[in-house]
Design goal:
The complex is a heterodimer of chains A (about 800) and B (about 100). With about 800 residues, chain A is an alpha/beta fold. Chain A has seven domains: about 170 residues, FAD/NAD(P)-binding domain (3-Layer(bba) Sandwich); about 120 residues, 3-Layer(bba) Sandwich (FAD/NAD(P)-binding domain); about 80 residues, FAD/NAD-linked reductase, C-terminal dimerisation domain (Enolase-like, domain 1); about 60 residues, Arc Repressor Mutant, subunit A, CATH 1.10.10.1100; about 55 residues, no CATH class; about 100 residues, no CATH class; about 160 residues, Sulfite Reductase Hemoprotein, domain 1, CATH 3.30.413. Chain A is built from 26 helices and 40 strands. In chain A, α1 crosses α9. Chain B has one domain: Rieske [2Fe-2S] iron-sulphur domain (Rieske Iron-sulfur Protein, 3-layer Sandwich). Chain B has a six-stranded antiparallel beta sheet with strand order 1-9-8-4-3-2, with no helix packed on it. Chain B has a three-stranded antiparallel beta sheet with strand order 5-6-7, with no helix packed on it. In chain B, β2 and β3 form a beta hairpin. Chain B starts with a strand and ends with a strand. Classes of the chains: A alpha/beta (about 800), B mainly beta (about 100). At the A-B interface, α14, α18 and α19 of A face β2, β3, β5 and β6 of B. Bound molecules: siroheme, flavin-adenine dinucleotide, iron/sulfur cluster (SF4) and FE2/S2 (inorganic) cluster. FE2/S2 (inorganic) cluster binds next to loops of chain B.
Chain lengths: ~800, ~100
């Protein structure tokens, strides 16, 4: 039988905990009942500030609306308060008389607004006076809006200049009210900011037209029938029509107290979020005290909810919550505020770095202890927040040049962090390789970076982590990292760099990959990892004189399609410049229907992908399509992305589509050390994203064309370098071709232009391509022409496969496709 | 008892490539090395089910096409930390037919 789970409190923590439980299939294990004091489903409390200011409607901020509870078989008692728990008989008692038994109980009662003592706050009957508001719930917010909208209410006074107070003040301004904030602390937001930051924030807030009184406590609310003002400790009186009290929050612990649970400042829980000394009662959110800390922000409660769910469902009993380091990034009254850790130095030895630019409302402060960041505050400019948060969370050692903590002086030196990274930290996000795995590979004898990469496959996905992998290996080897001579080899199995390899191949007249191994590899030993690179290189060098041994190709190049996770393939027909026709579309549709293609997708390269085609079906699919290959699989020229250009677009200054199609027709399918992706845009608006392509062309006013090279926006992002601006499409074609040939001959295997161009240097490339400084321009043009002339559509192999069983399935007993059919 | 299976002529496998066969309910990848010797291993990658017969080989290892785990053709052991492949005895008979012993 399902166990009975009862949750008291239907706010952000309670509902999140239930979601986490459901995500761990807890829906089957538990009958879930939730009680919520508020008569709604769970909403995003943080967004109440936006509801107050009118930027968001209250209906838009629900995280779990009522149907969610029904769909997940959760019994919700909305608007029903729980008054007491009998922990011995395991029942909860609700205000409406309901008594509900539980096997497991979760308390998530959150907090309420604190009303500091002052005269005139309450009516004689003990309720809060009309015109005095707190700011915690949706009802609070609605009431405030209603009141503020009444014409004769002109002036609001907010008591408390913390996050909530400033948000309330800013929100109320939207109703045309004059707003003043009275804050007892010496400066605004003193929980998060030091005095200097507070002073700058004050300027920014005052610039918004909000009056600020700091260091002054409110002692009384004035007025008989209606509110007329407040009195401060120094007897000053400030007039107002409404008062909003945002002077802090207090955890809701009444239920826990009357039920005999452990309560100090809040409900005391252990690292499993279990209430101290209780077997079956857990608590989560702002109502808990964990290792002495009570949190007032959402990030910690997300972490708590996950651990609680691991424990309650038993999915991961080892899961523990060890507390949160709270780093907050907020927009308070329109001002960016980020703060973490200490607001200012505490010890004499603490290092304190401050930058202050009051006129722009920018303030940055960082506190450093033992070369670790222990606190930071950023106001008005939060660009470095991500990096600082990481440095703070992980306790990374910091760059010596402290200035770079505050401003981008190039990217922060990453190696600083390696030693401090946790063993479990994932270094390679593609293959899920942790720092620990790399370290043990090194300890297991991998003394070079490639060896460690081979052993763990770290860095073998998108490649973005290679730098970090290198740093981890170097650190783990403690300086004893062996310089891998192979780093300069074109392919790992032949000990020669690219120029030497090419000249040996020419000297010896080698024409196939197996001949290269026989002649140039140590002991003539073949190497699987080197085959594909050699095949590509030799095809580029020898064109039709190349003896094409199919085993040297990667599977994609053997069957001219891209292998999928289940061993099926994707088919991307050529669609030059992204332009298609009725006939093409109809044919593609017919083929997709006939072959029951599992998924038809528009690619990021402006063409249509037919995914999930079984290997043995490739020839008939190609035949039915009767279109050339789009080369979406090869280390080769891929596509030319275009925009519509001047024939249609009102801004177009050049026929980008026409030029794109002609470039794609000319360079289709030529192999290269890595992919070549091009684009042509009709004007500098760059709708074809030309600035981030291997070769990108942009039409500019005056009938000219700019050529950019070395751009990328994949695993790496780089804006291309301007090679030159020319007058005609013919010049574009010639120079783009010359550059691509230069790249083909000089780039390392798998080195994209985004790495090649900066390595060689744009100046050098310009001088070779434009000024012919090496006297090779004519040869480059001729070599490219030879490759172009040698183009054969690989899909024509469908009629006469060059190797036996070329398209035979490699998983004979598996029914393919296994990819989902859409 | 191990019953040898004849799966057809060796020249259905190009030099340096592999082809897969269903033998006794098991999927077996047979490779013909560039020197003509045969090797047989299980056809499904223990990592994530990749088609081993589509892999790239040399005299020593096969590299799975999906995530490039490598396996020794002789022993099935992975050189990249994956679980091993099963190996099968395989040879060409006088008629140049491939014989696999499951
Ligand atoms: C199909 C497509 C995604 C889509 O559904 O739209 C795609 C699919 C793949 N991309 Fe891509 N890329 C596709 C557009 C892109 C783009 C966008 C573009 O071309 O405008 C990029 C960013 C531009 C770039 O290349 O820099 C892109 C950056 C990558 C990268 C990162 C390359 C890098 O060095 O930064 C890889 C990994 C690699 O090359 O090693 C990659 C690798 C892959 C592979 C080939 C992974 C693989 O080896 O199997 C994916 C094949 C999936 C499959 O099973 O068919 N794909 N990929 C797109 C095909 C475009 C086309 O028509 O040819
Ligand atoms: C205006 C505003 C802006 C905020 N902005 C941010 C921000 O930008 N960033 C940030 O991190 N945090 C912000 N917070 C704080 C954040 O909203 C809280 O940290 C979070 O809501 C706490 O979740 P909780 O579930 O613990 O409490 P709550 O969300 O308050 O949920 C507790 C629920 O339990 C109910 N309840 C209490 N007692 C009982 C009972 N006995 N029986 C039944 N039900 C009961 C309550 O009615 C309430 O619905 C903001 C808060 C407010 C009010
Ligand atoms: S298509 Fe590209 S981005 Fe998408 S999963 Fe594959 S490699 Fe990654
Ligand atoms: S499936 Fe073979 S390496 Fe991943």
């Amino acid at each position: 039988m399902a166990r009975r789970l009862v949750v008291i409190g239907n706010g952000m923590a309670g509902a999140r905990a239930v979601e986490e439980i459901l995500a761990r299939s807890g829906g089957d294990a538990f009958d879930i009942t939730m009680f919520g004091d508020e008569p709604y489903g769970n909403y995003n409390r943080i967004m109440l500030s936006h509801v107050l200011s009118g930027e968001e409607s209250d209906a838009d901020i629900f995280l779990n609306a009522l149907p969610w509870y029904r769909e997940n078989n959760i019994t919700l008692h909305a608007g029903v308060r729980v008054e007491r728990i009998d922990k011995y008989s395991k029942h909860v008692f609700a205000a409406d008389g309901r008594v509900v038994p539980y096997d497991v109980l979760v308390i998530a009662t959150g907090s309420h607004s604190f009303l500091p003592p002052m005269d005139g706050l309450y009516t004689p009957s003990g309720s809060v006076r009309h015109g005095v508001f707190t700011f915690r719930t949706m009802d609070d917010t609605r009431k405030m809006v209603q009141f503020a909208q009444q014409e004769h209410h002109r002036r609001a006074l907010v008591i408390g200049g913390g996050l909530l107070g400033l948000e309330a003040a800013r929100g109320l301004q939207a109703y045309g009210l004059d707003v003043a904030v009275v804050h007892s602390g010496g400066h605004l937001m003193n929980a998060q900011l030091g005095p200097d930051g507070g002073a700058i924030l004050r300027r920014s807030v005052e610039a918004l037209g909000i009056e600020v009184h700091t260091g002054s406590r409110t002692t009384a609310v004035l007025g008989k029938d209606r509110i007329t003002g407040v009195r401060l400790r120094d007897d000053t009186e400030l007039g107002c029509d409404m008062v909003v009290v945002t002077a802090g929050i207090r955890p809701n612990v009444d239920v826990a107290v009357v039920s005999g649970l452990a309560v100090e400042r809040a409900i005391v829980v252990d690292d499993h979020l279990r209430v101290m000394d209780e077997e079956d009662i857990y608590a989560v959110g702002e109502c808990v005290q964990h290792r002495g800390e009570v949190y007032g922000l959402v990030a910690p409660l997300w972490e708590q909810a996950a651990v609680l769910a691991d424990q309650i469902t038993g999915v991961d009993r080892s899961s523990v919550y060890l507390g949160s380091r709270t780093a907050t990034k907020l927009k308070v009254a329109g001002v960016d505020v980020a703060s973490m850790g200490l607001p200012g130095p505490e010890l004499d030895t603490d290092e304190h770095i401050v930058f202050s630019e009051p006129s722009r409302g920018v303030f940055k402060s960082i506190v450093i202890r033992d070369n670790k960041m222990v606190g930071a505050t950023l106001l008005g400019d939060s660009r470095k927040v991500a990096y600082l948060t990481q440095a703070f969370d992980q306790g990374l050692p910091l760059p010596e040049e402290r200035l770079s903590l505050m401003f981008d002086l190039g990217s922060p030196a990453e190696e600083e962090g390696v030693a401090e990274l946790a063993d479990s930290a994932q270094v390679c996000n593609c293959n899920g390789v942790s720092k620990g795995a790399l370290v043990s590979a090194v300890q297991g004898g991998c003394r070079s970076v490639p060896a460690a990469m081979d052993a763990t496959r770290a860095g073998k996905g998108c490649g973005a982590c290679k730098l970090l992998v290198t740093q981890v290996v170097e650190w783990a080897a403690d300086g004893a990292v062996e310089d891998d001579p192979a780093a300069s080899y074109y392919v790992p199995g032949i000990p020669l760099d690219k120029p030497a390899l090419m000249s040996r191949i020419r000297e010896l007249g080698l024409r196939s990959v197996s001949q290269v191994f026989a002649a140039l590899a140590p002991d003539s030993v073949e190497d699987a990892k080197s085959k594909m690179g050699l095949a590509s290189l030799m095809k580029m060098m020898l064109a039709e004189k190349y003896i094409d041994e199919r085993d040297a190709r990667f599977i994609n190049d053997r069957v001219h399609a891209n292998i999928q996770r289940d061993g099926t393939f994707s088919v991307v027909p050529q669609m030059k410049g992204g332009v298609t026709s009725v006939q093409q579309l109809r044919r593609i549709a017919d083929v997709a229907e006939k072959h029951k293609i599992p998924m038809i997708k528009l690619t990021g390269g402006q063409r249509i992908d037919l995914l999930g085609v079984a290997k043995e079906d490739l020839p008939t699919v190609w035949a039915d399509l009767d279109m050339p290959s789009g080369y979406a699989y090869g280390k080769s020229f891929r596509t030319v992305k275009t925009c519509v250009g001047k024939d249609y677009c009102r801004f177009g200054t050049g026929d980008s589509t026409g030029l794109g199609i002609s470039l794609e027709s000319r360079f289709q399918g030529i192999e290269s050390p890595a992919k070549l992706k091009l684009a042509v845009s009709g004007c500098p608006r760059n709708c074809a994203e030309s600035l981030v392509k291997d070769v990108g062309v942009v039409a500019v006013e005056g009938g000219r064309w700019e050529i950019y090279i070395g751009g990328a926006a994949g695993a790496h992002i780089r804006k291309g370098d301007l090679l030159v601006a020319v007058d005609t499409p013919e010049e574009v074609t010639l120079l783009a071709g010359r550059f691509m040939q230069y790249y083909r001959e000089n780039a390392n295997w798998l080195e994209r232009t985004y790495a090649f161009v900066p390595r060689v240097g744009i100046e050098r490339i310009r001088s070779v391509i434009l000024d012919d400084s090496e006297g090779i321009a004519a040869r480059l043009d001729a070599a490219m022409q030879e490759s172009v002339d040698n183009y054969v559509d690989p899909w024509s192999e469908r009629d006469d496969p060059p190797t036996p069983g070329q398209f035979r399935t490699s998983l004979p007993l598996t029914v393919l496709p296994q990819v989902p059919v859409r | 008892m191990k019953i040898p299976h004849v799966v057809g002529p060796v020249d259905q496998i190009p030099f340096g490539e592999g082809r897969a066969f269903g033998i006794d309910g098991e999927q077996v990848a047979v490779f013909r090395l560039r020197d003509g010797t045969l090797r047989a291993v299980s056809a499904v990658c223990p990592h994530k089910g990749g088609p081993i017969a589509d892999g790239t080989i040399d005299q020593r290892v096969v590299m799975c096409p999906l995530h490039q785990h490598s396996f020794e053709l002789e022993t099935g052991c992975s050189t990249t930390g994956a679980k091993p492949l099963r190996t099968y005895e395989v040879f060409a008979d006088e008629g140049q037919n491939i014989v696999v012993i499951p």
